[in-house]
Amino acid sequence: FFFFNDTATTEIYTLSLHDALPILSDLSLKMYASSYVYSNEKIKKLVGNSKWVDSLSGLNETFSWLKLKITPKRSTGIINGRVQIQSDKKLRVGIIGCGVISKVHLKKIKEIPNVEEIILCDPNKDALDSIKSQFSVSKGYSDYREMIKSERPNVVHVLTPPQYHAEVAIFAAQNKCHVLVEKPMSVNRSQAERMVQAAANHQVKLCVMHNHLYDDVMLQARNQIAQGAVGKITYIESWYGIQFKQFLSRFTPGAHWKYNLPGSVYQDYLPHAMYALTDFVGDNSEIKVTHAITKYAKSTPAIESDELKVLLETNDIVGLVNVSLSNSPRQQFLKIYGTKGEMIIDFLNQYVFLNKAITSVPKTVSRIIASRKYGKMLIKASHKNFFNSIRGKYELYQGTGRIIQLFYRSILLDEKPPVTGNEGLQLMNIMDEIWKRTGQAN
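The chain above was modelled as a monomer; its predicted structure follows.
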């Protein structure tokens, strides 16, 4: 009960059967009813000539910062997994290289309404004619220079072997074509630098096909991590394993272009394992290669080793990358460990599993619950993949379609490419160091 007397003071009385203390004491009431003003001269001296804003502007900037902090990376232009292109403008697209991967690109391109015309190019007439027939494309060239000069496409997809990426991409940039280049971006850092510089000099966009960055599982994982699901990331392990000898029936061992890269066959597969890991490292972090070793499981012919292990580090994260050319069954996954939990991202089985300790129960019980949860999740993922396979909806190139659409969006709306040339350059720098450490470089 509050009573106000003639002297403008407040007296507080409490009625209690148990002689309890009053809810508000004289001291706390005085604090709640008073205003306190302090000088900010000291903080001004400490921060110097920093920007000063009013209270409302400060709150708006703070909320914007918080929103940005919990917004997943690479989410611009994607709503519920679908890429939004708010433009009716049309693009003329050139495909340079009609190998196996061109079929994946063309399938995705055909689904984009902003594409006006497709032009193909490959010096191999049989490959060129086959792709023209399969995708009902009327125009085809044997020389990419002639194709670019004659057709003036807005964007070209460079799908040649990596040994020709730099040559083709630089010529395309010089002729004002935006460039989407398959991984690996080039054969070494020097070539990648020239590609990035050419794009900058001629004011065109350069994008690298790090396709798994935009798979469903990566979108899901980045969203959870942005919400703090694993806390501060401390360790990441990335695995990419195939049995390469299964592919050798298509060509003579040692004669394929993969064998002639600086990192030999590894260089065609390592980017997938590497960019998946580096995507969860801070954008401004310097990534160092601390150890790199190779071993030979005697599974792959015409090669000196078929197992590669790379240890990486930044200021606060350790990473391990594994590439196996002798692995069976095939594996491609990422494990992320943090201060609040751990996460598995499985690209082939297409699931994300988040494991967090349950502190309200004994540790043994917590582990049992986690195992049951993991088992149920595997069953659910297997059922989903099975039925998607029957319906023809299971695919490993979700990210390829999204990158192509996002790159076209970046051209039409003048935005940043989904995977920049500098990101590809960073990867080439890391790989050059790996080949140096393993003695793999040709």
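Residues 2 and 12 are 5 Å apart (CA to CA).
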